[in-house]
Amino acid sequence: MLNTTVPLDKRTTEIIKTTVPVLKEHGETITKHFYKLLLENNPELRNVFNQTNQRKGAQSKALANTVYAAAANIEKLEEILPHVKQIAHKHTSLNIKPEQYPIVGKYLLIAIKEVLGDAATDEIIEAWEKAYFVIADIFISVEKEMYNEKENKIGGWTGFRDFMIIKKVKESKDITSFYLKPVDNLPISTFKPGQYITIKAQIENELYDHLRQYSLSTAPDNNFYRISVKREASSHPFGIVSNYLHDSVEEGSVLPISAPAGDFVLDERDHRPLVLITGGVGLTPIMSMLESVVELQPNRNVIFIHAAKSIDHQAMRERVSEIANSYEQVKQYVVFSNPKNGTDGDKQGYIDCDWLEEVIPTKNAAFYLCGPKPFMSAINHDLQIMDVSDKDIHMELFGPLEPIAK
């Protein structure tokens, strides 16, 4: 059992608590400055950090939220343990090591001092140094357990392992699937429906590696993994990896990947109706859940709802229809925001609360949502209006962890 008891003296704890309002106000400025300092002085870490998220500011915002949450809960860090585990899944997928934590701590403290100026007294910096290493120890402990679990599973590994693309399939106008098998032909570890892998893209003429996490889009299989990737409209910098995969990676290409990770997973112990709601490429982890549930729980009622621009953008259309036609307890609905004609799909426009109440017969169900953040915020809001319990709503946001609006 993880020990989250904070070995901090009373004065240090009081100082951390008094800085909570300051972090709420200046947290994002501090973390942006932190990343700038860290990467300028340790450029090799650009091989780890997602440079797209850096440019968008998403990484600094996510770190600010984490630092703020830790400060606000400094006397009861067990409260943030679920959040720590979410981040730890990301860290182990990226192969973050314990020896990197002191480097991060050094530049975080420098950033706090430089942004806050005279307000960051020596006493405050000393208190935050103590608190940082307590929090870091929690992350290191959680991640050690995860690394051990990955390595000790049948077919498991840590770090990156070479996989070959054995099949490349165009699923829609902008989404392509890649099937991967290990180059060493040894067993691969199974995974939980909804988990992801990290790909290390080593792109010609790029100074640093690009690490990207992609959901596994098929039911667990002992022989291969499958990811389904949307081509981003811009090729550089924001879509550099997706365009590389679409344009340069072919059958026979080799990609280093990390072992499956992630905590957005199907609860196979729940036998209530299952409602799967997806937007665009957000269908990828949900496809894994759909394919899995009909194998593992063939009598479970499932409602699969997918929103896309048009039929040309509806990925895996034939596979979903095959499942729905083969299992009478599976009902599928498609919503097109920009249909090619007025008869396409089950609804034109956008998903709304009234329509959800028509197609979902009960709120006593398990709901899984995945898609762009605005999409999930809207659906989550609709489910709240329908009085669906928070504990029954599970969501996955691609990219750094951020809160979803209620």
UniProtKB/TrEMBL annotation:
Its cofactor is heme b; FAD. Keywords: Detoxification, FAD, Flavoprotein, Heme, Iron, Metal-binding, NAD, NADP, Oxidoreductase, Oxygen transport, Transport. It catalyses: 2 nitric oxide + NADH + 2 O2 = 2 nitrate + NAD(+) + H(+); 2 nitric oxide + NADPH + 2 O2 = 2 nitrate + NADP(+) + H(+). Pfam families: FAD_binding_6 (PF00970), Globin (PF00042), NAD_binding_1 (PF00175). Residues 7-144 form the Globin domain. CDD domains: flavohem_like_fad_nad_binding, Yhb1-globin-like. It is an enzyme of class 1 (oxidoreductase). The record marks 35 as: Involved in heme-bound ligand stabilization and O-O bond activation. The record marks 90, 396 as: Influences the redox potential of the prosthetic heme and FAD groups. Heme b binds at residue 91. Belongs to the globin family. Two-domain flavohemoproteins subfamily. Is involved in NO detoxification in an aerobic process, termed nitric oxide dioxygenase (NOD) reaction that utilizes O(2) and NAD(P)H to convert NO to nitrate, which protects the bacterium from various noxious nitrogen compounds. Therefore, plays a central role in the inducible response to nitrosative stress. This is Flavohemoprotein. The lineage of its organism: Bacteria, Bacillati, Bacillota, Bacilli, Bacillales.
